[in-house]
Amino acid sequence: MSRKIAILGGGESGIGTAILAKKNGYEVFLSDKGKIREKYRDVLEHIEIDWEDEKHTESKIFDADVVMKSPGIPDTAPLVKKLREKGVPVISEIEFASWFSETPVIGITGSNGKTTVTSLIQHSLKEGGIDSGMGGNIGNSYAKLVAEEDHDWHVLEISSFQLDGIVDFRPKIAILTNITPDHLDRYDYKLENYIASKFRIVENQTREDFFIYDADDENISEWLKKNPVRSQKLPFSLEKKIENGAYMENENIVVNINNTKFTMPTSELALQGKHNAKNAMAAATVSQLLRIRKQTIRESMSNFQGVEHRLEKVLKINNVLYINDSKATNVNATFYALESMESETVWIIGGVDKGNVYDDLLPLVNEKVKAIICLGVDNKKIKASFGNIVEAIVETTSMKEAVQMAYRLAEKGDNVLLSPACASFDLFENYEDRGRQFKEAVRNL
To answer: Which of 35, 43, 186, 367 has the lowest CB atom count within 10 Å?
Structure first.
């Protein structure tokens, strides 16, 4: 008697789950309320899976022993509520995948810096000769990784939505980069619900596991005071000296684990800026734990290429530098981007607002931004927040128009920065699509 799984959502995590479930003898039914993209439909046809799109056939879904819900579907969706009322377990793809893998996991979550830290760790492990596969919220889904590849370690970027659906998922090394208000629309607009969700990454850890986190982050520190964790803590900080963990001393990163010290001048890091010093600390802590040679850690931290759509320098035209930071989907990420600007900036911002509060950006905008280009369907809040402090605010409805407007407003020596602080779903498929359209529009100037 084969077990039945129903999969809600035909994106990356849905398809990965279908591949893994089929491989493990499940009877699979995949259902998507929207339209499934052609490349995913082809996979479903190829592995001969029963699927539907643009509807949910409830009788087939309720017949399942377990339901995997894609991270994009909120817990409040009527179908999900009904399933839970009927006692059908609803889990996330990372939970399902973890049932079929003994490979130890390095799991990275946080409001910002996740992708950079994940990519930096994968890069260091590769340079250090450790066999690892990277996936999760970046590249291949965890389920696809488990189904199709064999590695000694898995390096996973994990979102709070994926953590919401775990039961037994347990990373050997958990990393929490920071917590700033994001996605509050999915957490009843309560920051504490979002914080609790992020901390699920450590809930199944034991004393044999490790927890690496930002000790300067107030939300994290406050939570840890009230909610002790079982794993071994390895904090990192720019502000204080840490006994076991990472800190800053005389412009050097220092990672000290059980009296083994690694040091590296911040000037040699491939990625500059305070937030990147923290990202490097988190990654170097993992490398130290896995006993990668110090020289190799230094090399990997200094030759890392960075992440696409994250402060990515695109082109210089007429001595104006165009920077793609499309991955900045919340205010805090944009804060880091503006903080790192060293010349006058024309800033392209906007999209789907997740309950943004722009107050923290005001001093930076005042100091660095000469013009704002809104790129979204509804820009009222942006205009209300910054209308009085910049010379020009313009509204645009396409990337091409936004980039041409930036070209007109920028002068020699300026930066043009796409750092939207918002989700992209009003005008684009996702932040990658938004970033690629920006790069293409810049190249076509």
So the answer is: 35
Residues 231 and 131 in one domain: yes
With residue 93 as reference, give the H or E element that holds it.
helix 93-98
Residues 414 and 346 in one domain: yes
Question: Is 314 strand, coil or helix?
Answer: strand
Q: How do the pLDDT tens digits run along the chain, 445 residues long?
A: 569 999 999 999 999 999 999 999 999 999 999 999 999 999 999 999 999 999 999 999 999 999 999 988 988 899 999 999 999 999 999 999 999 999 999 999 998 889 999 999 999 999 999 999 999 988 899 999 999 999 999 999 999 889 999 999 999 999 999 998 766 777 767 788 888 989 999 999 999 999 999 999 999 999 999 999 999 999 999 999 999 999 999 999 999 998 899 999 999 998 888 888 999 999 999 999 999 999 999 999 999 988 889 888 999 999 999 999 999 988 988 998 998 898 999 999 998 887 888 998 999 999 999 999 999 888 999 999 999 999 899 999 999 999 999 999 999 999 999 999 998 888 898 899 999 999 999 999 9
Domain-terminating residue out of 250, 269, 303: 303
Contact in structure between 393 and 383 (CB atoms under 8 Å): yes
Q: Are residues 167 and 272 in the same domain?
A: yes
Helices (H), 341-379: 362-368
Which are the contacts of 395, defined by CB distance < 8 A and separation ≥ 6?
A: 374, 379
Q: Which residues are annotated as a binding site for ATP?
A: 110-116
220 and 105 assigned to the same domain: yes
Question: CA nearest 115: which of 352, 422, 325?
Answer: 325
> Burial level of 407, CB count in 10 A (0-12/13-18/19+)?
middle
The rounded distance, in Å, linking the Cα atoms of 108 and 85 is 32
182 and 238 housed in the same domain: yes
Residues 283 and 135 in one domain: yes
HSE-up of 266 (CA within 13 Å, CB side)?
19
Pairing of strands 4-8, 66-69: parallel
DSSP string, 160-211: HHHHHT-SS---SEEEE----S-SGGGTTT-HHHHHHHHGGGGTT--TTSEE
Same domain, 175 and 232: yes
Binding residues: 110-116
Residues spanned by the domain of 197: 96-303
Instruction: Look at the alpha carbons of 356, 361, 365, 366 in this order and tell me if their dihedral is positive or negative.
Output: positive
The span from the CA of 214 to the CA of 299, in Å, is 23
